[in-house]
Amino acid sequence: MAQKIVTLITGGEKGLGLKTAQALSKQGQVIVIGALDTQKAKAAVEAMTKAGNEASYVALDVTNHAQVQAAEQYLEDKYGYLTILINNAGIVTDAMKPSQEIPLAALHQEFDVNFFGSVDVTQTMVPLLKKAEHAQIINLSSNMGSLGLATDPNFPFYNMTSLGYAASKAAINFETVSFSKDLKEFGIAVNSVNPGFTDTEFGGRNTNDPKPAGMQTPDEGAAQIIKMASQNPHPANATFTENAGELPW
Ligand SMILES: NC(=O)c1ccc[n+]([C@@H]2O[C@H](COP(=O)([O-])OP(=O)(O)OC[C@H]3O[C@@H](n4cnc5c(N)ncnc54)[C@H](OP(=O)(O)O)[C@@H]3O)[C@@H](O)[C@H]2O)c1
After folding, report:
1. Distances 61 to 7, 42, 121 between C-alpha atoms, Å
2. Up-side HSE of residue 171: CA atoms within 13 Å toward CB?
3. CA–CA separation, 36 vs 89, rounded Å?
4. Which of 13, 14, 22 to mutate for ligand 1's pocket (most ligand atoms within 8 Å of CB)?
5. Rg (Cα) of the chain, in Å, rounded?
6. Domain boundaries defined on the chain
7. Cα–Cα distance between 169 and 190 in angstroms, integer?
8. Using N-to-C axis directions, what is the helix angle for 118-130 and 163-183, rounded to 10°?
9. Which of 15, 185, 201, 226 lies at a 20 to 30 A Cα distance from 39?
10. What is the fold, at CATH topology level, of the domain defined by 6-216+225-246?
11. What is the pLDDT averaged over residues 12-24?
12. Rounded distance between C-alpha atoms, residue 175 and residue 219, angstroms
């Protein structure tokens, strides 16, 4: 009998992570939400289980190594493997601030969550991913982390600098490239996805505020993540994509 697909989504209790969790749950994947806010995660899990699907949550601050290890232990005890890891948890603390004015502490904070957090979760989950029939890792990147786009005057966000956020997302792209090479021999696909500019509470946005031009709905933002996670075994490795297709690194 084929293994059930077990999917861990960090920051899966709200925003794009929740949209992704709900869609993959409807497809029958077993969802484990790695949550900073366990109250929200509890409500999300209850809705999924009420609909007849298997879901649970673990307390998971990606900057807390003890919690990362406890999440691995939980998955090990309950399933013995992990099929899909979605590194979705992310923050921005320096949106559109001039580079020369961003406190170093803000840069550290962004790297701690966006880069070091996702690397720690990935390294810790690799033994479980190796035990899945067809594993994959999806890293939530951003078009803001593309050096190709950041240096292209035609890129709509060319003049928007957010040094820490953009650099941490570029680092995530390197995380994708590095892990994709190192995990290829184990049949684990590793890819980056750009959800695009989306109407979530990201960066403290109030979703009741008017939508700026070009802002997508959460369904549109989650579509490429869901598409990637729905293909298992995953045919692509070391790609950086969005709804419209491939992006330059
Ligand atoms: N929305 C966009 O326009 C956009 C564009 C490009 C890329 N992205 C990326 O998409 C991902 C999801 O963003 P979103 O729009 O869904 O934003 P969101 O609604 O703010 O969701 C981010 C999630 O990450 C969680 N999180 C923050 N710090 C964490 C930590 N230390 N450990 C575990 N979880 C943590 C948040 O929890 P709390 O809210 O409780 O802090 C929240 O659940 C992020 O990686 C973001 O960079 C978003």
Report:
1. 17, 16, 10
2. 19
3. 9
4. 14
5. 17
6. 6-216+225-246
7. 15
8. 20
9. 226
10. Rossmann fold (3.40.50)
11. 98
12. 26
